[in-house]
Specification:
The complex is a heterodimer. By secondary structure, chain A is mainly alpha-helical. Chain A folds into 2 domains: 31 residues; 268 residues, MetI-like (MetI-like fold, Orthogonal Bundle). Chain A is 79% helix and 0% strand. Chain A is globular, with a radius of gyration of 24 Å. Chain A starts with a helix and ends with a helix. By secondary structure, chain B is an alpha+beta fold. Chain B has 10 helices and 20 strands. In chain B, the strands form 4 sheets. In chain B, strands 6-7-8-3-9-10 form a 6-stranded mixed beta sheet, sandwiched between helices. In chain B, strands 13-12-11-14-20 form a 5-stranded antiparallel beta sheet. In chain B, strands 15-19-16-17-18 form a 5-stranded antiparallel beta sheet. In chain B, α2 crosses α3 and α2 runs parallel beside α4. The longest helix of chain B has 18 residues. Classes of the chains: A mainly alpha, B alpha+beta.
Chain lengths: 333, 367
Amino acid sequence: MPMSVTVSNLPAAVSSAAGHSRPVGATTEPRWVRAVLIGVAVAFLGLFLLVPLLAVFVQAFEKGAPAFFRALWDPDSRSAVGLTLLTAAVTVPLSTIFGLVAAWAIGKFHFRGKNVLLTLIDLPFSVSPVIAGLIFVLIFSGTHGWLGPSLEHWGIKIIFAVPGIIIVTMFVTAPFVARELIPLMQAQGTEEEEAARVLGASGWQTFWRVTLPNVKWALLYGIILCNARAMGEFGAVSVVSGHIRGRTNTMPLHVECLYNGSGADSGPAAAFAVASLLAVLAMLTLVLKSYLEWKTARQLARAGDCPDSRPNESGTVALETTGRRDATEEKSP
Amino acid sequence: MSIEVRHISKTFGTFEALRDVSLTVASGELVALLGPSGSGKTTLLRVIAGLEQPDPGSGQILFHEADVARCNPGDRRVGFVFQHYALFRHMTVFENIAFGLRVRPKKLRPMAGVIRDRVNHLLKMVQLDFMADRYPNQLSGGQRQRVALARALAMEPKVLLLDEPFGALDARVRQELRQWLRRLHDEIHVTSVFVTHDQDEALELADRVLVMNDGRIEQIGTPDDVFHNPRTEFVVNFLGQVNRFHGRVRDGKVHFATLTWESPEHASAPETAAHVFVRPHDLDVELTRNGHPAFPATVHHIHSAGPNVRLELIAESGERLWAELPQERYRALALSAGSQVFVSPREVKVFPRVAEEAAGEIAELAG
């Protein structure tokens, strides 16, 4: 980010101007302190992130490549992959639409209860996924839920079935897109939309030609995060799915089943084979995320820069967003 | 095309941005809305454009005698230049200017070639034809401003509205763009209204100036008229620097700063307190009394850089005031800080304060 570059360069320039003969970096700690700090960070990352990731692949291929592919080609595994893809295919578009609508409302209009809405959007982040699952069991359970018995009467089954999985995933992934778009839309303001209206554009034309292109990268970024969560969610889905193999098991649930299972096709190797798929997905997500992050940062910088050319404002916006984004990542799996 | 605003009010919550405002802009005229921030000038402009709805039941807005109060902004055929330009940041300069033509319904949309020619023509007019493929963030403030103007003109507006068009630019670019806009207006003669808080800009550029304060129109007139014949204290105060004296009106004379000034227009007025305004360039400075009504003062500070010399004076009563002299006159007087001088006004503006005096006395009694 351009802001951080300026900040770290500044003290160096100041101190050398003040007459130091030796070029001094932004920080003045001795070399060994830096080495220790970097060493600790690298060791931590290696131990807690890289080693487990490697372990997944090592374990997956423990019994050889044929066993690996057999585990993946198992009907229950295929069904789990299918269900996970179906869940993502339904929830990601819905969350995207919800996110766009909510961000549009919050970023472009003034209305009462705006802060309440903002807080509500964050609710799924602050509620434990297991609790989220239980909430929906309480609402939809066939035996003791509020709506369950009457739905059952009509032959609609939600808990321990696919609709329940989709509903809790919706709940858990709802904030991702909205949270990405709101700060950007707020920073961009409504002037461009007003300009489009005065120039004769209809509401749809304004949306498609002005609003959407302006938030394109942040939107994609939100969708990527949302998709990763939709495919990886365990807690909430675990509560409502009932773990019926071949029917209501998503990939994360299936990994657990395989790991704990005692059948011939179960065991750690099979579990890690399926888990490796999720790991690949996670890495893909990371790569895409970094690329899109870079794109959105540039766009945010422009959001403050283009209309009124006040550089410090764009800097503040970019910094705020980074701070918030880090907070989001801590909560996401 | 003419614009007529009749008895428009606009409130935001409890804030009254416009209070019963009426004005008429003749076809082809260039009118400035001048006022401090919060005076309602931008709101008035946005109401004319249709970006704000006036309070329900509060009058009409007519374009060429047709009521447009119910029309969408897009149907009013107004060109609007936003204070911060509001260029579409993801479009090139060319696409920005073409936008208004491209979003037209299919029946009314010009052919691609026609759009290209029109945009290129506008780019030449705003002297940016070499910038067609740039993005807004690659342009300077003055260039963005001209793109915004070209974009507004592309749809051949019947009315051009500009919100603080030079507000975000530095002094030299402002000056250049100001003259350029005046020439442009003389060429294309589109009815134009622009908002500004800069009196020089309003007085230099506009055919007529409308001074606003607190949601009301204080005065409408030619630049010459509002500058030389201000009708309210606010207008005097707002249009350039002015010295204010507390005085009294009695029998067609004004008494202030130990001198008496003939004021025949207040001959029939009852005796009352008054504010007396004198512009710095209307104060003459002499070393001796020369028969004109004058009061003594001490030179406190001299600012001699600039076309005129500005003197900061302290009157005997302790009041500080400014006087402005041509350089030759200043050299002839050979003034320095601490010099004793006699100050005689050439022209004064008197505003009796009948109502306020009564209120003030009550407040004093209460206090």
